[in-house]
């Protein structure tokens, strides 16, 4: 089987790494890829939101499966064009991808499917936004209605900051979503879907804020770990039964069946499980940690989802180890990141195979040196028998890498390693 992976981030690097380990996969091509991915497989230049260019490339390469990594090409209808050209595609069509493309639509779907989620109000002007903020009170949660690369959400105790973000969202969109704040730890669960069947992967937890102890602005994600030693028994089954499967069934009723991966972002609150958001693709950086642990060959699994055969899939197998991902970011991220800085010691080997690098915002300069080219530059994935061992491996490897202004959080998975994650009583924890 020949597979084309669309995208250029650490998520796609993780997908490429897992696909090349599948003996049924004879070739992997990434488009456009990045310098790290290019060390693993062939890369080809392409604009991933240009449906014609992507389809032409798939036809030229004569691939058996196209895996769409980022959200933008899905919302742009690239999956539709590939389907129409006869390709098997792992990723939803445009109409189904609106689950991520519109926060307001996602709320409508969850309401119809009786999926537990935060109370929300959709505002179309600043006055409505202000009224919604006052009705919920602090902490204020303001979400851009459209795609924002994981940075469209502001959570703040400051009403002026919340209202400013709402106005900024309305300047580029007709709607903004104001929600109640959800307490409790967050969980990310990827659920593979073929339009009817839901197959969950292992849960993970990510860290959105730029600074230690969840300080500073939201980012695309600064780290993640899997599994969750503190998760209540039966959590994954509950998410599938109460969230993923009802959503999949509702999408069928609407005539927009969902194929691909449904990312369920949830909070385990004092009132029970609540959905924070849906995404329609693998999340970054959770993918890096989850795929590090998956023992089932990935290629045939994604093909089964694309072809509507997930009900035939055998139970997933997982490695008996933990994985912790630490993101290394450029100076000034998540603002306008500084780029072009040479990355030192990037090619130095890890410790006995217990840590490895996945590239994201990297490039080669005119002299062939590896330099920063984006906000999130590298993911360092550490593995080990427990969270603390995996965490130590990741930070040991991260400590060997440097460039001017490099940012990283020092507390990824720390609370989990210390057994200090509090789960509210409604979810099996202590009040």
UniProtKB/TrEMBL annotation:
Pathway linked to the protein: Purine metabolism; IMP biosynthesis via de novo pathway; N(1)-(5-phospho-D-ribosyl)glycinamide from 5-phospho-alpha-D-ribose 1-diphosphate: step 2/2
EC number annotated for this UniProt entry: 6.3.4.13
Top enzyme category: ligase
Highest taxon of the lineage: Bacteria
SUPFAM superfamilies: Glutathione synthetase ATP-binding domain-like, PreATP-grasp domain, Rudiment single hybrid motif
ATP-grasp domain boundaries: 107-307
UniProt record, GO biological process: 'de novo' IMP biosynthetic process; purine nucleobase biosynthetic process
Pfam families linked: GARS_A, GARS_C, GARS_N
Required co-factors: Mn(2+); Mg(2+)
Catalytic activity: 5-phospho-beta-D-ribosylamine + glycine + ATP = N(1)-(5-phospho-beta-D-ribosyl)glycinamide + ADP + phosphate + H(+)
Record key words, sorted: ATP-binding, Ligase, Nucleotide-binding, Purine biosynthesis
A molecular-function term among this protein's GO annotations: metal ion binding
Family from the record: Belongs to the GARS family.
NCBIfam families: purD
Protein's name according to its UniProt entry: Phosphoribosylamine--glycine ligase
């Amino acid at each position: 089987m020949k597979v084309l992976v669309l995208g250029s981030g650490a998520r796609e690097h993780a997908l490429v790494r897992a696909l090349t380990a599948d003996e049924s996969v004879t070739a992997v091509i990434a488009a456009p890829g990045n310098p790290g991915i290019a060390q693993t497989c062939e890369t080809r230049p392409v604009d991933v939101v240009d449906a014609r260019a992507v389809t032409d490339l798939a036809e030229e390469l004569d691939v058996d499966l196209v895996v769409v990594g980022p959200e933008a090409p899905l919302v742009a209808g690239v999956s539709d064009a590939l389907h129409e050209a006869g390709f098997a595609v792992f990723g939803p069509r445009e109409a189904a991808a609106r689950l991520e493309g519109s926060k307001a639509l996602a709320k409508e779907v969850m309401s119809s499917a009786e999926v537990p989620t935060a109370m929300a109000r959709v505002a179309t002007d600043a006055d409505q936004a202000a009224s919604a903020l006052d009705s919920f009170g602090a902490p204020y949660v303001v979400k851009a209605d459209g795609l924002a690369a994981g940075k469209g959400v502001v959570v703040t105790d400051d009403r002026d900051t919340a209202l400013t973000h709402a106005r900024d969202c309305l300047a580029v969109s007709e709607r903004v979503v104001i929600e109640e704040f959800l307490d409790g730890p967050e969980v990310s669960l990827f659920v593979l879907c073929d339009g009817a069947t839901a197959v969950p992967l292992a849960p993970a937890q990510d860290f959105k804020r730029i600074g230690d102890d969840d300080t500073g602005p939201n980012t695309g994600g600064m780290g993640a770990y899997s599994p969750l030693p503190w998760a209540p028994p039966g959590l994954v089954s509950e998410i599938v039964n109460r969230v993923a499967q009802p959503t999949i069934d509702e999408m069928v009723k609407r005539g927009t069946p969902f194929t691909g991966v449904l990312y369920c972002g949830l909070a385990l609150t004092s009132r029970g499980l609540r959905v924070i958001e849906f995404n329609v693709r693998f999340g970054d950086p959770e993918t890096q940690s989850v795929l590090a642990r998956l023992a089932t060959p990935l290629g045939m699994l994604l093909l089964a989802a694309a072809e509507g055969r997930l009900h035939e899939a055998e139970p997933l197998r997982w490695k008996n180890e933990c994985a912790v991902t630490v993101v290394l970011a450029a100076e000034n991220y998540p603002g306008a990141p500084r780029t072009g800085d040479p990355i030192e010691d990037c090619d130095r080997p890890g410790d006995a195979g217990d840590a490895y690098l996945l590239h994201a915002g990297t490039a080669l300069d005119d002299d062939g040196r590896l330099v920063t080219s984006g906000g999130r530059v590298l993911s360092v994935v550490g593995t080990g028998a427990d969270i603390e061992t995996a965490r130590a491996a990741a930070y040991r490897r991260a400590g060997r890498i440097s460039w001017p202004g490099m940012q990283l959080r020092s507390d990824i998975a720390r609370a989990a390693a210390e057994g200090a994650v509090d789960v509210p009583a409604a979810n099996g924890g202590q009040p």
